[in-house]
Amino acid sequence: MQIRVLGCSGSIASGSRTTSFLLDDDVLIDAGTGVGDLSLEEMVRIDHILVTHSHLDHVLSIGLLADSVTRRRRAAQRPPIQVHALAATIAALRLHIFNGVIWPDFTRLPDTTHPVLAFQAIEVGQVLNLGERQVEVLPARHTVPAVGYAALGRQGAWVFTGDTGPNPELWARLATLPIAALVIETAFGDDEQALAGISKHLCPADLRAELAQLSTPTEVYITHIKPGEVDAVMSEIAAQSSPHRIRALASGDVMRLPG
Q1: C-alpha span between 5 and 12 (Å, rounded)
Q2: Taking the CA atoms of the chain, what radius of gyration do you get in angstroms?
């Protein structure tokens, strides 16, 4: 399996894209502004979108992608793109985005029998079978219902926490899972620890406490840092003593794991 980073920032600026990962060539994990870095041909190949939660920086490209690929997927008689999300997230997308006011309802377009999108409700703990790949739905703690994901490889898992504050349920599960790579958010610096707590994100001090629950040294990639704050946040993380190999994630990074 191959995971390509399309966007990993907590907001936008020149050179910054919000969260999206491409698993192999047909599965998106979140759909932030990074999806716009794909060619039209690459977008047409996407069959699944795994959504962590309903916040705009993670979902805004779902509707734009649907609009972009409708003609080509219909001409090729491709099935609807499956959008996998918590039931609460699906309800939020229907109410606030695919409502005919903010954006057309592509679960009913081009027509109700051949839509370009189809929503599929998921639950924490569920393992999704996507072709020959398995992706587990992980718990997250955020201001809205949220999840993370683990792509399960033969020799370890690629884990994405999604947006989350301190999350005991996650570490209980990861303690039983061999981890090849962990992508974890750190949205704020320690000077904004109170704001991180209110918004249910992490800061470096929180990250240190979370990573202390991993018993095996692991490749750790930091995501969701605000534009202009990367150096400051990563300096605070680097000042900590950690057995893990920690670096900032960057758009264009490619991670591979067997199986």
Answers
A1: 15
A2: 18
Three-state DSSP class for 236? helix
Gap between the Cα atoms of 11 and 57, Å rounded: 7
pLDDT per position as a tens digit, 11-35: 999 989 999 999 999 999 999 999 9
Q: Two tokens at 146?
A: 């949220």
**Residue 258 pLDDT:** 77
Mapping DSSP to helix (H, G, I), strand (E, B) and coil, where does residue 195 land? helix
List b or e across 39-71, with b for residues whose CB sees 16 or more CB atoms inside 10 angstroms. eeebbbbbbbbbbbbbbebbbbbbbebbebbbe
**pLDDT tens-place string over residues 162-191:** 999 999 999 999 999 999 999 999 999 999
Query: Cα torsion at 154, 157, 158, 159 (round to 10°)?
Result: 160
- Give the Å distances, CA to CA, from 75 to 40, 70, 114, 175, 187: 14, 9, 11, 46, 42
Residue 191 CB contacts under 8 Å (≥ 6 apart), including other chains: none
